[in-house]
């Protein structure tokens, strides 16, 4: 302490100046803009991009910059690929039924089918994104609804919970769909305690809109989702 006082003339600790940052604010903005345009850009790609401009940085430095801007590498979620006509159809549906009250929607029985893939290629892709942006189109991996699998499940749900779940062996045809409705539809309505004036929702799959379905199962109102 005596030596420190004689050398500096004070007992106060000397503070070193902060190390100068390698990347300028402009460089950081460039990195952030790059991953916002293409979230699948890797940290290694960003390092290479900076090196081409004469700036050498490590991968960890690039990651720290992105972390400071709340951008973290996360696994991209797989979502069903929606074409423009799908999006337009959903918007039309929302516009047409947007004025319905809660009582109406509580009496809607929703239905859908899903194909279960037993052997799929679980490839992980990472994207740079902020919290809450997981389902934005640019942060997801598009998947196709059809294209391989082992079996199909047909189910339904309403505001009160889930209804029956039916396993479909092989290819489902319109005749099979009619049988499934006769077997499970009324049972699910009773289980979920849906009101007397209830609506059954279906999409526009050809087997859902066939005349045979209208003739054989005409005891419910239908709400078609494009």
UniProtKB/TrEMBL annotation:
Residues 29-97 form the Transposase Tc1-like domain. It comes from the Eukaryota. InterPro entries: RNaseH_sf, Transposase_5, Transposase_Tc1-like. Pfam families: HTH_Tnp_Tc3_2. GO terms for biological process: DNA integration; DNA transposition. Gene3D superfamilies: Ribonuclease H-like superfamily/Ribonuclease H. GO terms for molecular function: DNA binding. This is Transposase Tc1-like domain-containing protein. It comes from Oncorhynchus tshawytscha (Chinook salmon).
């Amino acid at each position: 302490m005596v030596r420190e006082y004689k050398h500096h003339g004070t007992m106060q600790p000397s503070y070193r100046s902060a190390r100068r940052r390698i990347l300028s604010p402009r460089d950081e903005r460039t990195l952030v803009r790059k991953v916002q345009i293409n979230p699948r850009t890797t940290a290694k790609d960003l390092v290479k991009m900076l090196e081409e401009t004469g700036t050498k940085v490590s991968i960890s430095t690039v990651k720290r910059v992105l972390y400071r801007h709340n951008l973290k590498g996360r696994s991209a979620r797989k979502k069903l690929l929606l074409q423009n006509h799908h999006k337009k159809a959903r918007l039309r549906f929302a516009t047409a039924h947007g004025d319905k009250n809660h009582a109406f929607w509580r009496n809607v029985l929703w239905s859908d089918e899903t194909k279960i893939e037993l052997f799929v290629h679980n490839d992980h892709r990472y994207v740079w994104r902020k919290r809450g942006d997981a389902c934005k189109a640019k942060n997801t991996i598009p998947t196709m609804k059809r294209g391989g699998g082992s079996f199909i499940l047909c189910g339904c749900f309403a505001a009160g919970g889930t209804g029956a779940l039916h396993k479909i062996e092989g290819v489902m045809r319109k005749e099979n769909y009619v049988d499934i409705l006769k077997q499970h539809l009324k049972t699910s309505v009773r289980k979920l305690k849906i009101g007397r004036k209830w609506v059954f929702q279906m999409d526009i799959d050809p087997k859902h809109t066939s005349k045979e379905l209208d003739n054989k199962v005409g005891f419910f109102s239908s709400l078609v989702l494009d």
